[in-house]
Design brief:
The strands form two sheets. The chain has a seven-stranded parallel sheet, with helices on both faces. Strand 1, helix 1 and strand 2 form a beta-alpha-beta unit. It folds into two domains: 226 residues, Glycogen Phosphorylase B (Rossmann fold, 3-Layer(aba) Sandwich), CATH 3.40.50; 164 residues, 3-Layer(aba) Sandwich (Rossmann fold). With 403 residues, it is an alpha/beta fold. The chain contains 19 helices and 13 strands.
Length: 403
């Protein structure tokens, strides 16, 4: 097949969830002989350099940077016309014109199916052609904004934006999805939200992410103080749910853990943490690393992994990766909603500060018991979350749409 993929990011390096998902999808489709034209919008200027690594996977590659000036006018336009800020923020007149020319070209006319990665690319994907479109929503933004607008600990401007967006997204997700040949979500709870809001069940395919357990990562003892008992939280710390979760943990949970386990160390690993989070770094028992090449060594060197998210959508790769590496996990209900019952039983779940602290302390004080459960988690992930399985499902959806 000849496939056009439109995405609001550059899927390299494949670290956070969305990049990871699309990168492995690209690798799978390329490996099966499909030809891909990849069009990327990005808010990260450094991605203009990173995109070069994707050229071997694509027939053609287009990337455009949306700067702060573009974003401001996009958001202003969204407010004036009354639309979702999530979708309006990635409008590009330049991409619109390039796609118009593309559809008139030989390459555009050869396309069998279009894959729109994330809802915000749906308008561009469904404009000016008669090709079938598949939308990979990944997670339901309706569900995400519903959680965020009620979360008192979140930044006020984020909550205000969530209040605005929730009303529009509730309509947009279903309306754009109805126009597509098929939509995909990363977990069943996200599909259920769409069904409740009126989308036909047969238009939705759930495709979870895989977990790549093939690389042999070594522990990174230099990353942590000697003989410390380490609690690790991995992810893009510039992402709102991760940032808010890390702050909640350090303010409300960590003092209890530290009092019970004096030699404990907490590490927030990955992404682009803002100043509000970086200020907690003391280089001793509170570590905020920022971006790292690989988070796996930090997990392997830790006694447990946490996911203290108080609002979340889709599949939490940090939880899946931790389980897959055999690392005990303490997480909130929000961070484990994507797991089936068998998977939830392998995670220590708590939502209030006292309960979360109790779970962390119990693992630090009784690591052998926690490790036994973690090994079961490793087998569970290896069996149920493979990229090859995800790729096969994606290919089947695209082929069905292209008929």
């Amino acid at each position: 097949m000849n496939i056009l993929i439109l995405t609001p990011l550059v899927p390299y390096p494949p670290h956070d969830g969305d990049k990871l998902r699309l990168y492995y999808f690209l690798k799978y489709l390329k490996g099966k002989g499909h030809k891909i034209d990849l069009f990327c919008l990005t808010r990260v200027k450094e991605d203009l350099v990173h995109a070069k690594a994707l050229k071997p996977l694509c027939r053609s590659l287009y990337i455009e940077h949306i700067n702060n000036f573009d974003l401001f006018f996009n958001l202003l336009g969204g407010l004036l016309v009354g639309s979702s800020l999530n979708v309006a923020s990635y409008f590009s007149p330049k991409l619109r014109d390039i796609l118009t020319a593309y559809w008139a070209s030989k390459a555009g006319q050869s396309i069998d199916v279009v894959l729109a990665h994330r809802l915000r690319m749906a308008p561009a994907a469904l404009r000016n052609h008669d090709k079938p479109v598949v939308i990979d929503l990944t997670d339901s933004m309706t569900s995400y904004t519903k959680q965020l607008k009620k979360q008192s600990g979140a930044h006020l401007l984020r909550r205000m934006a969530a209040w605005w967006d929730h009303w529009f997204l509730k309509q947009d997700e279903v309306e754009w999805s109805e126009r597509a040949a098929q939509v995909m979500t990363i977990a069943q709870p996200d599909a259920d939200v769409l069904i409740v809001n009126g989308l036909a069940k047969n238009k939705i395919t759930v495709i979870p992410n895989g977990v790549d357990l093939k690389p042999l990562y070594k522990k990174a003892p230099s990353a942590y103080p000697d003989k410390a008992k380490v609690v690790c939280f991995v992810g893009n710390m510039g992402y709102a749910p991760n940032e808010e979760g890390a702050l909640w943990f350090m303010k409300n949970v960590w003092p209890q853990v530290k009092a019970a386990v004096p030699d404990a160390v907490f590490a927030a690993v990955g992404g682009s943490p803002r100043k509000v989070l970086r200020e907690y770094h003391n280089g001793y028992d509170l570590l905020v690393t920022g971006w790292v090449p690989h988070v796996e060594p930090y997990l392997l060197g830790a006694d447990l992994s946490i996911a203290p998210l108080r609002f979340a959508g889709g599949m939490q790769n940090k939880v899946a990766l931790s389980l897959g590496l055999g690392v005990p996990v303490v997480a909130t209900t929000a961070a484990t909603g994507w797991l089936p019952k068998a998977g939830k039983s392998l995670v220590n779940v708590a939502d209030d500060a006292n309960g979360f602290a109790d779970e962390v302390i119990a693992i630090l004080k009784n690591p052998k018991k926690a490790k036994t459960q973690a090994l079961k988690g490793k087998k569970f992930v290896a069996k149920n979350y493979q990229w090859n399985m995800a790729g096969k499902k994606l290919e089947a959806v695209l082929k069905q749409a292209a008929r």
